[in-house]
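**User:**
Make up any protein.

**Assistant:**
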Amino acid sequence: MSAPTRTTRMDASDRRELVLAAATKAFARGGYAGTSTDAVAKEASVSQPYVVRMFGTKSELFRLVFQRSIDGIMAAFAAVLDSTTPHPDDDVWAALGAAYTALVADRDLLLVMMHGFTAGSTPEIGAQGRAGMAAIYTQIRAGTDCTPEEARQFIAHGMLLNCLLAMQAPEHADEGSALGELAHCAFGPSLGTLGTTPS
């Protein structure tokens, strides 16, 4: 007779991570206004009361997911700026750009970030988005010793990449259109790695 199979139970931190990952997917699809805690629960295969018990309100859950996207950007930039390998001025911008492009290839993270920045009329999310943008700007200014104009240019280019990714321009870059030309110009050699839509 074979020994009974023991099922392993997830601990609280694993369950929390599972729901946060599901919330990221759900909010990426529907945005803040268009996503309910019930939609998050369905994505996570848990009950809606469980999601509310764990995270409180929809606003609190969205803010956690939004903050993770901001923190992800800052961590990617910190890895470049805190590197022991010195970067000449031109190379540091290329390294930061490559780090950002690799990060936002995760469409769920990208779309949550975009939804967060566009939910500025919701007071607590708007305040979080403004604080997040200010923190990224401060990090770039301090880490590169650049001018405000150089930091603005870098962030503006990042926002262009966001828009092109959100509209799935890389998937349509080879159609010979003006949008394809813009995508090639914006992404450069990394465009070929971005031309697939995640499931």
